[in-house]
Design brief:
Blueprint lengths: L3 H15 L5 H8 L26 H7 L15 H14 L9 H10 L6 E7 L8 E7 L3 E6 L4 E5 L3 E7 L2 E6 L7 H4 L13
Antiparallel strand pairs: 1-2, 1-5, 2-3, 3-4, 5-6
Main location: nucleus
Pfam families: RNase_P-MRP_p29
GO molecular function, one term: ribonuclease P RNA binding
Amino acid sequence: PRGSEEAKAFVHAFLKRSMPKVKDEAIQDMLTRKALVLEHYPKKKAKQKRKKTKGFTARQRRELRLFEIEPEQQKYSIFLPLHELWKQYIRDLCHGLKPDAQPHMIQGKLLKADLHGAIVTVTKSKCPSYVGITGIILQEFKHVFKIITKEDKLKVVPKLNNVFSLEIDGFISYIYGSKFLLRSSERSAKKFKLKGTIDL
């Protein structure tokens, strides 16, 4: 058995090693008490920075031809099932297009809906050659629609200065392209004002 002095020295050294931030005077003060609470100082872990995954640039997307539709795939019949899926999607979105449904509510939901697969017609345009183009929307960009017609021709129709009509279950909605210059992902969060307009 160790003597009292040795025991005191051992405890003092142990406390000094266990609590390096505590001064000798404080340790001596602790030794005069019967109860002692040891504190633990864990080592701080260095935070690892998360690396953000970078997507393709616009130039890389063009080089890889990510958004191009191959000529052999440019057939109206291929995309008819997509149109049927789109109609079911709109019916679910509008909780069924019933005759007593309020038109402005349906219009508001269509403005935010995904239009890939919808059949649209250019009803008005400042460029007469666009009027009458009807087809399924295959791709929507910020400024243009890519539409496949019944003649299996892929048309790139600008939104600016064009009015599009969209019909589903007897409900016809008109889209003013000049007010629609957004990507489809941005439209879902935008608040549209349901007011009439006379310009294209």
